[in-house]
Amino acid sequence: MAQVLEIADLKKLAQRRVPKMFFDYADSGSWTEGTYHANESDFQKIKFRQRVAVDMTDRSLASQMVGQDVSMPVAIAPTGLTGMQRADGEILAAQACEEAGVPFTLSTMSVCSIEAVAEKTTKPFWFQLYVMRDKDFAGRLIDRAKAAGCSALVLTLDLQILGQRHKDLRNGLSTPPKFTPHHIWQMATRPGWCLGMLGTKNRTFGNIVGHAQGVEDLSSLSSWTAEQFDPKLSWDDIAWIKERWGGKLILKGILDPEDAKMSLKTGADAIIVSNHGGRQLDGAISSIEALPEIVEAVGDKVEIHMDGGIRSGQDVLKAVALGAKGTYIGRPFLYGLGAMGKKGVTKSLEIIRNEMDITMALCGKRDIKDVDQSILKRY
Ligand SMILES: Cc1cc2nc3c(=O)[nH]c(=O)nc-3n(C[C@H](O)[C@H](O)[C@H](O)COP(=O)(O)O)c2cc1C
Q1: Which domains does the chain have, with CATH numbers?
Q2: Which atom of ligand 1 is nearest to the CA of 272?
Q3: Cα–Cα distances in Å, from 156 out to 76, 88, 145, 247, 355?
Q4: Among 100, 123, 334, 375, which residue has the fewest nearby CB atoms (within 10 Å)?
Q5: Whose Cα sits closest to atom 2 in ligand 1?
Q6: What's the pTM value of the predicted model, to 2 decimals?
Q7: Which residues are annotated as a binding site for glyoxylate?
C-alpha cells in the first residue's frame, strides 16, 4: 500500500499481517454485531456547521482528562490480548502514547504485564481493572498498578459475564494460541508476526498467569472469564476498590442515564459512556447516541468520557461537541499496531489528530476547549 491516509488503510494492512483469529478478535462484536456497527454509523448522522472568514491560526487541541494534561482529548482504550496483534503490543502502544502525549490504558487481560509495561516506559499509564470473584487477586492487581505508578484506574462495569462473539468461537480463539493445523496455517501465512512472537517471552496473560492462584496457563479466555469474573459485582463493591486504589477512578461501561446517576454516588472522577465496542449487549444503542442524554443527566456533576466507533478525528470532535471531555480509541490503535507496530499506533494517533485539527478550524474554532454543540448542525 502506497499511502496510509485513514484508519481504514491501517485496518486493511492489519488484516494482511495479523493471523486471522487475532484480527477477527479485534474486528468483532457480539451476536449480530448490530451495536458494533451502529457505534460507527451513528457518527455519520451528525453534521458539522461550516464557518468561514474566521481567524484559524494558532490552534490547540490540548486539554485535560481527570486533571491530567493530554495533547488531545483521546486516550487508548484498554484491550485484551493486544500483545497478540503484534509481539509486545502493549509495550509498543504505551511507548507510542507516551510520545504522543495521550494516556495509554492497560487491560487486566493484557499479554504484557503491568510490570513489563512500566519497565519499558517512562511516564505513568492507566490501568483497567476487571473485578474477579477472587477479591484478593483483584486487590493485588490494584496494588501492582499503584506500585507501577499508574495514574488512573479504569474500572470496567459492563463485563460481568462475557458477550458471545461468533467469530472467536468459530476460530477456536485461545491464548496462548492452539496448535491445530488450522491455527498453524493462519500463523504460517503471517511470517513477520511469527518472527516477532518468537522473539518475545510475552505470550500469555501476563497479569494473571503466575499471579492468580492455581493459574499456570490460560487455555480458554471464555471459560476463565466465566469462572473468575464476578457476576455479583454491585455498586457497593466500588467503595473498597476506590479506597484501596486511592487515586483517580474512572467507571467504564455506562450507557444509561440511570446508571450514570448511580455512578455519582461512588465519587468516581469520571465515567466512560461505552458499550464495550459492541462486544457485550448486542442491540444496545450506540455510545454516541447515548452520550447526550447522559450529559444532560449528570454532565454538570462528573467528567464524562466516551468510546465506541471512533474512526476519525471528526468523530472525536463530535463527541467533544456533545459534551465528552475525553474519548478513547480501541480498534483504530489495534489496527495500527497490527499493521506497523509502534509506528502504526503513532500513525493512528496522527491521523486522528490531523483530522480533528482541520475539522475544528473549518468549523471556526481554534481551541478544543471552546468546542461545544454550536459546531454541530443537528443539535
Ligand atoms: C479486541 C478488544 C479487546 C477489548 N478488551 C477490553 C478489556 O480487556 N477491557 C475493557 O474494559 N474493554 C475492552 N475492550 C473495549 C474497549 O476498551 C473499548 O470500549 C472499545 O474498543 C471502544 O470501541 P472501538 O473499538 O470502536 O474504539 C476491548 C475492545 C476490543 C476491540
Answers
A1: 7-46+67-355 (3.20.20.70)
A2: 19
A3: 15, 23, 15, 16, 29
A4: 123
A5: 79
A6: 0.97
A7: 25, 165, 276, 279
